[in-house]
C-alpha cells in the first residue's frame, strides 16, 4: 500500500492545472461524503449520545449562549 500511495502522490503532483482543479473538487466531495458517513455511523451506534446529553444538560443549566 505504501508504494501505491507514493505512486498516487507522484501522479497527483504531475497533473496539469485543469486536471488538478478537477481532482481537488472531486476529493473535497469524496472526503466530505466519507466524513458524513462516519458521523452518521457514530450517531446510529449511539457514540455521540453522551456528548448530546452533556450539551443539553449544560444548556438547561444556563451554561450556553446564543450564537
The biggest beta sheet is recorded as: none
- Which structural category fits the helices and strands? mainly alpha
The tally of helices reads 3
Low-confidence stretches: none
Strand content: under 5%
Tally of DSSP β-strands:
0
Shape verdict: elongated
Helix and strand run: HHH
* Mean pLDDT over the residues: 96
Radius of gyration, taken over Cα atoms and rounded to an integer in Å: 20 Å
Distance between the termini: 45 Å
Helix % is over 70%
In total, how many domains does the architecture comprise? 1
Features:
elongated, 67 residues, mainly alpha, single chain
What does this structure look like?
- With 67 residues, this protein is mostly helical.
- It has one domain (16-67).
- The protein has three helices and no strands.
- It has helices spanning 2-13, 17-44, 49-60.
Q: In a nutshell, what does this entry contain?
A:
The chain is mainly α. 78% of the residues lie in helices and 0% in strands.
SSE layout and pairing:
Layout: H1 2-13, H2 17-44, H3 49-60
